[in-house]
Specification:
- The protein is an alpha+beta fold.
- It has one domain.
- Helices cover 32% and strands 20% of the residues.
- The protein has a 4-stranded antiparallel β-sheet with strand order 1-2-3-4.
- The two termini are 16 Å apart.
Length: 96
């Protein structure tokens, strides 16, 4: 279940993804499969090869890309890995 983001933020993220940019959005997220996890960052890009290459630098496997919506492929990042990646990207404000 996702919540805690404004419609404008989601629209902007989707537009960046559609343009082939590497785009980040963080939202609150509750999922029984990941106890203790309260937020997730989605890193998306319509260009799957570009997204896979971006992920490779952080040890993310291409098969981890969520492709359920063909127009919004993305990695789901959370926990310590997410925090480390966001810090390296200069996006500490997305850690919450």
């Amino acid at each position: 279940m996702a919540f805690g983001i404004k419609r404008e933020e989601l629209i902007e993220w989707k537009a960046k993804v559609a343009r082939g940019e590497i785009a980040f959005i963080t939202h609150y997220w509750l999922d029984d499969r990941f106890p203790g996890t309260k937020s997730v960052t989605k890193v998306g890009c319509r260009d799957i090869e570009k997204l896979a290459a971006w992920g490779k630098q952080y040890g993310l496997e291409p098969q981890w890309i969520d492709k359920r919506k063909a127009t919004m492929p993305h990695f789901d990042l959370f926990g310590e890995r997410r925090d480390a990646i966001l810090k390296k990207e200069g996006l500490e404000h997305l850690i919450w």
